[in-house]
Each structure stands twice: as structure tokens, then as C-alpha cells.
From TrEMBL:
This is Bacterial surface antigen (D15) domain-containing protein. It comes from the Bacteria. Signal peptide: none annotated. Pfam families: PD40. It comes from candidate division WOR-1 bacterium RIFOXYC2_FULL_46_14.
Amino acid sequence: MRILKIGILFVICHLTFVISSHGATWLDPSYKWKTIETPHFSIHYPKQLEEIAKGFAPEAEGIHNRLSPLFRHTPEWKTNVVLVDNYDYGNGMTTVIPNPLVILYVTDLGSNLSPYSYKEWLKYVFLHEYTHVLHLDTIEGGAQLTKLLFGRILFPNALSPRFIVEGLAVYMESHYGSGGRVFNPRFEAQMRVDILEKKLKTIEQASMTTIYWPGGNLSYIYGAYFIEYLAEKYGEEKLFRLSREYGDYILYDGIESCFRVIFGKKLADLWQDWLADLDKKYADYKTKEIVPTFTSSGYYNLQPAWSDNSDDLYYTHRDFGSYPLIRRLNLSSGKDTKVAELSAFDDSMSILKNRLLFSKPQYYNNFYYYKDLYLMDLASSKISRLTFGERTADPAFSPLEDEFVFTKLNQGGRSLWLYDLKAKIRRQIGDEDPSISYFAPVFSPDGKKIAAAKKSSGDQSIYLLDYTKGWEKKIADFGLCGNPFFSPDGEYLLFDSDRSGTGNIYAYRLSDQKIFQVTDVPGMAIMPKVSPDGKKLAYVNYSSRGYDIAVVPLDPLQWVEPDEKRYRPPAVADIKPLELSVSPKGYYPFPALLPKLWMPLSVVDENGRHTSIFTTSFDSLTHHAYEMQLSYDAKAERPIYEIYYANNQLFPQIFLEAIDFPVNYRWDNNSKIYWERYLSQAVYASFPKYALFSEYDSQAITCSFENINLNNITSLDALTAIPATGNVRGVGLGYSYSNSRTYAVSISPEDGIDLYLSSKFYSKALGSDYSFTNYSISSNQYLPTPVPHHILAFSETGFLSRGEQLSQSDFTWRYLTLRGYPTTYFSGSKGGKATLEYRFPVAYMENGLSYGLTFFDRAFGKFFFDVGGSTFGNVSNIYLSKSAGGEISLSTVNGFGYVPIVLTLGYAVGMDPGGEGKLYFGISSYGQKITKGGVPGDAKRSIVL
């Protein structure tokens, strides 16, 4: 009963591009939410973003007016748009189930790694996200019947290869707005090097999130240029025709037949045509020399920072198989060592006299994920935090030692600041226009000037500032420029730019204002850093592996004057905002909270099978969420229901449940069936806390009250053993803590602990007919082994019940499962078990069938040893039984990423009385957690920008 309902909900949640990583309280309860209503949108925002929301509303309507006719579609419900500013990274997310909903972070997406040329961030990101809404929400022909019968539950275009969904959105952002990624040289480099190095991913991999570089970005990169090819060769209209006609799942037998009709070729053949076209396009790059690098791991190796002795390079490292790091590379020995595990990424780092300045994000006040500044003593590895929740980044030491420059984020803009380490005083310098963004500031060797990349209305150029005299001037304005750095003699200012259509490093000579090209790479060269002795240049080089650190001699004699020819993206007609007047009002969760989908299920009671209806919904802010299964037994004149509700509007989180359900037990030694009417009302209050002892741990304290009523449906006269009936009422207290870590390559958590403690007290003083107390504990510890991703996992569970005993299970006694023994062999009011498992990956297949309809992800195995037992008597009476065995599992992802399934084959042997040798097979899912109240979390797949 419960399993079936969760299974259906699981499928529904995977058929949406969920925003529900926000399934818990993710918004500060102190926010005062407002709403602006326009003809096609409900725009929700905290009061402090009101001016931004007012400016965004006309832009949103302008985008609808431009895009809706192209798709020939307008959603039947208004699209809800939520503007938030609690996260220091730019992004957008979209779902169409149960309501069209877009979440936009007002933080600019631009960074030291990926500068952008869009003029307005929110307009740019919304154009991408609203493309998803119009594309996925399109339902035509026969699919309309499904919608009429079951509501907003099935969207055929969502069941497309991911590279089509994301590729179309990137295409639209590029051709109907400024700064789109199709025409961004740094984005294109990621496509080009795969062609040049013959490291192409398969079409199935392009539809998934793979463990190989570039991971989740693959569908964006390949998808964007594949859709661009289709539009150029066959006409843009066919892209919109694909959206309309595939929106009718009855019209075509899958994506393949749809492509054959619209484009006249199979999708696989079009893919090969596109790759051949790219091979010709990039032919001129094949003569460029491949750059040797000091690191070779790929993924992300960024922001090199030289030690004072010019022999050590510190840099940030991220991959898909370990926690982010700061590492140290010694050039003389080639030794590469870990300095610290922390989530620094592409913000600047700076070293002076054995001190390292850096920034990293961390939860702040439980609801914000903000960057702050830190200072590390490299001799002792001691780290001191300099700012708290101030949204600071890109620190750089002054040669004057006790001062540094940094940037500060505020509602999208990045201002420039100085910090006095001795006086602990901050003061703003540079342009104070809040729409301006500064990146990667750096001091000149004499400490008198600062160079920085400055972004203003689509242009990002290098500026030189004299902060003592209050002036600044632009010194390099071709292409997107970033990451300036002075040579130690102050003669040159190096920076990266995509001036030629390829990201390369350039040098500006301050004495005569002349610019030279320093590198000429086939991929991309960024983030230049000159060694303190002035002899070496370190920079980040891009290849098909990702980003690695290269080190070359600093030789100005080898530099050349840049070609006069400059890359300029094609001009795009800007979408004009729609003139309208707006009147903000208070936030109201309806109509988004109204049920928009329903599914027929069934329930069974003593009178047979009955049809039930399942529905679920949540409002735009996930303040409220619910799921319900409703039925009625006409013969018994009795309702049957399960209702769960979550309130994330307050702190603590509140969960409510109400259940009236028939339950059957095998009774009197399995000779009879006993039917019980189980009625329950419960309330839970949860207090989550993030980043307690580290940047990645969390805890939650949960208080609960339960009121359960047990009524017999079966006549008690027919039974020998009399079941418990009446009220069971009590309170509970639970505690959970987790600091376990899992990575994209992992087949299990790889380190840390997951702990859960629970105590429940049922008392006649609370109106219960029974008094008893239950205690339970569950713990999992994970230990890495010397072999990567091979894990030793220890788990322990225990339970204890004291007081009156009820006949039915799961109140005062329970079954304990031990592999290698019958499921109901162990039972008692006290018990426990311990498990030791050796878990290991077998293979990463990373390929599939039908363009990602079925994707074989990885195979993994485990050997295990279990020991446990239970009793109704004293704990000393527990006989510990043992078992051992092994399992092999195959992880698959189906339905273009929405339905992950794990197939497991195992064999276990019980070593003590009652044990048996047993071969078993299991089917399970992963990646989706359903919390109380029906809010889905930790989704395997979501659309993000």
C-alpha cells in the first residue's frame, strides 16, 4: 500500500524538472514575500528585491511576447517566477509539474572561469528558462487526452534526450538575447577540443550526466551546437515543429520517427553529419601545438598562486571523485600534495610571506550559501576566518603586507573593497554603481595601483585604478577580458581574453600601452600568474580532460602583436520589454497549491479492491506541500485515506499526517487474516542545522506527537490471540547527524558517518490506553581504503522497548532482518545487528540505448558479514546469529534520466540455526528521497542553467 504510493510519487517527481533540492526549509522564514502579477506571470520575491522585481516584470512579458508565437504555445496557467538572493552563484531552475515554475538567483553567473557578455543577467537566464517552460509544457493531439484524464502529469517533450532540451534553450538564449553561449568562445572551446583531440562522447552520454569530463555540462555543449547545426542546415522553424509534433506522443513512435519525418534522417545520422561538419570547421586549429601541462588530472585545476620561492604552485582542484581541495605542486620535484579539503573554486588566491588568502562558500545562518574570506598559515595549516556572511571573494595581498583588496557581492553587482588586517577596517573603492561587477583585482608591485576586470552592460574589460587618487581607466577592451596579473617588475600586466575567438593570454606593456599575444593554444589559456622571480608563467590550459596547470618560461621576446582581426559575435536584435504598470501585493500560495494532477491507484480492504486517487502539489516557494491518496469503501461506509502535509514557511519545519487505512495481519499462527482499521494523526517539528563542525555536515532535531487509534474490523470472537485495540498516544524526540560524503564516481558514501537516534514515549497520562517506551539507534560509518572508491562500511542498528506489550508488530516489537535467514525469523522487543561490508566498483559502462532512453551507468559489488539477533526477554538472552554473502548490482537510468533503477543479484548464507543459503534478486531506485509532506529532494535530474 505505502510502497505503491511512494513508487508512483517517485515516477511523478522524476517526470518533472524539479526544483526540489529545496525540499526543506531553504528560504529564510524572516523574508516578507511580495508578488507582482502580469498577464502571463506571477513574480514572487522577498521585499528587499522589489526594485529588481519591478524591472524584471516588463522584461518577462517581452520575452513571452517574442517566444510564445515561435513555439505557438502559451501555458494554460500563469508561470510562477521566484527571485531569490540567498546563493552566491548564478543559476536558474525550471519545472512544469505540477505548475510552470522558474526559480532565478539574482547573483550574476559571470566568474573568473567563465565571463559572459550578456547585458542583463536576469533577462538572459529567464530567456533560457522560459524556453524550457514553452518547450516542455507543449502538449498536442493525443497527449491532450492524457492531460484531460490525469491532469498535468505527462509531458512528452520532457521525455527527450537531454541534449535536445538543453541545446534548444542554449540556442534560444544565443539567438534571441545578448551574450548567449553558442557565440561564447570559452564555451565553444569545450566543443572544439573534443573534435581536435578525437575525444568525442557518444550520443547517449550527451543525454546524461556522466562521470567523465565535462559531466553535466555535456548536454549543454553538445546540445547547443547540434541544435545550431540543425537550424542552419534545415531551418529554425523545424526546431519549433519538433517541439509541437513530439508534444503529441501518439503521432510518432518515439524521438527517432519524429526526426525522420521532420528532418528526413535518423537522429543518429544527423549527429554524425554534425560531427563531420565540425571537423571541417575546426581544421585550421589542428596545426596548433598541444600544450604540455604540469597537472594531468583534468576536471578543474584553477587559480594558480605562486609561493614566495617561485618553486611551489598552489591551486584549487575539483573532480568528480573527491572533495574539493587546495593543492601544492612543487616544480622541482614534481610532487603534488594536498593542502586542505575545502570548497574553494575559481576565485582568486593570493600568497604573501607564507600566508594564503582565499575565499570559499559555506552555509551562513542556515539559509544562505555565501562566500567569505579566509587566511591560512601555510606553515601550520591553521585557517582563520576573516568575514562572516559578507559575500566576499577574490582577495589579493598588497605588497604592503597588512592590506588586501577583495570584491563584495550585493544583489548581482560586485563592488571593490580594501581590508586592513591590523585595524580590521574595510572601505569601498572604485566605481560604486551597484550594477557594476569587479573580478580578480590585483595590486601592482609597488602597491600604488590595482588592476581588475570590470563588467558593465555586456562589456568586461581590464581597468587600472589609482585608489589613492580616485581614478580608473580602461586599458584593454577587446573581447571578454579577465584575471589580470602584474609581472614582478611592474612592466607588464597579463590577462586573458577571447579577442581572437579563442581564449588566450595577452600582455599589456604599461610604458607604451602596447598589447602582445602571449599564447596561441587550440583550446583555451586563462588565469595567468607570473612567478615572483619573474622567470615563469603559470596559467590554466583547457583540453578534452578539462582544466590543467601549465608552466612556461616568461619570455617577452617570444610574444607577438595580436592579429588585427577580432572575433565579434553576431548581432542579435534585443527583445524589448513590454510596457506595463505593476502593483506589488502580498504573496498568496494559491492557485499554485491547488491539485493539478491525479492518478488512479487501488487499495485493498476486507471487502476487496477499491479505486483510489493520488494527487500532490506544492506552492511556488515550497512553503506548503502535500500528497494525498483518497478512496471510499461504500459497503463499509468508510473513507480510506493518507494525507501528508509539510510546512516550510516557518522554523522549525512542520510535518502533519492523517491516515485512515485498513491493515491486515496474518494471525493465530498464520491461520487467519485479521483486518484492522488504523487511524493516525501526527505532527512533527524538525530543526535542521547546516555546517556545524565542517562546511558539509548537518544535523536535525525532531520532536513529534502521535495519536493512533486501532479498531478491529475482523470480529475478535473469531480470534484466539486478541490484538490490541484502542488509543496509542505519545511523544517522540529524534536526532540525526551526517557528515558522510558521496561523489559522482562513488558507488557508496566514501567517508564520514550517518547517525540517527530516536526515543518515543507513550503514556496513559497523555490519554493512551498503553504505556511503553521505544528507543532505537541507527549508525553507518564509511572508511575509504587505499584503492579509490573501494569502501569499508560499518552499520549498526538497535532497538529496545519497555513497558506494556502490544500484539501487533511495529509498536512494541518488530522483525529484524538478517540476510541468509527467513524475513520473519528474528523478532522481539529488543534486538540489534551489525554489518561489515566491503563495497567496490566493477565497471563504469556510461553508455546505453535509444539516445538515453536506457542508460547503463555502472556496476558495483559488495561482500558482507552480518551478525544480529532479537528477543522478547532480557538482552542477555539474545543469541547472535551470523551470515555472509555478496551482491552484484547494475545501476541504470531510464526514461532519459527520470527513472533510475538498480538491479541487484545476491547470495547469502546463514551460519547458525535457521540459516539458509539463498539466492535473491532485488530492484530498487536511487537519487530520490521523499520526505514527509511529499516534498521531493535530492533529485537525480533537474534542469539548471
